[in-house]
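Retro notes (design track)

What went well: tokenization of the new backbones is finally stable.
What didn't: we kept losing track of which sequence belonged to which structure.
Fix going forward: every design gets posted as structure first, then sequence, in one message. First example under the new rule, 136 residues:
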């Protein structure tokens, strides 16, 4: 179960790095006229990938705990899930809501990219902690 959980976390890491390096910066290049439609499409499509994986990450973490895993690296990795969820719903979602409501804004898009580093780093640290269980 820990292997499956780690796999899900690393799938999310790959996804967040793609979003951080490719998707969000490209928002600046879409243009004002096409942005609202593009952004709406992005949000709908990315949700079909991200939401199930995030829920699976939490569910599998609970499963790993339920099965008795108490490795300190695993336990230390758990608060990073909370950090990602808090950053998602308290920072990223409100910024996306601004973009949905007001449209293209260079400063808001730059804020989206800048603040998303919190999730990118948190998920990456979490994945490295989980990987270290198997390496060490």
């Amino acid at each position: 179960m820990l292997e499956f959980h780690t796999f899900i976390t690393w799938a999310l890491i790959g996804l967040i790095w793609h979003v951080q390096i490719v998707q969000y910066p490209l928002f600046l290049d879409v243009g004002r006229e096409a942005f609202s439609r593009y952004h709406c499409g992005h949000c709908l499509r990315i949700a079909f990938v991200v939401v199930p994986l995030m829920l699976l990450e939490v569910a599998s973490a609970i499963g790993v705990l339920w099965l008795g895993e108490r490795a300190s690296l695993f336990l230390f990795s758990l608060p990073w899930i909370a950090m990602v969820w808090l950053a998602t719903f308290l920072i990223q979602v409100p910024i996306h809501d601004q973009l949905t409501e007001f449209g293209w804004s260079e400063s808001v898009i730059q804020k989206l990219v800048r603040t998303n580093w919190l999730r990118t780093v948190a998920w990456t640290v979490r994945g490295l902690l989980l990987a270290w269980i198997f390496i060490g």
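Added context from the reviewer: The CA atoms of residues 8 and 57 lie 6 Å apart.
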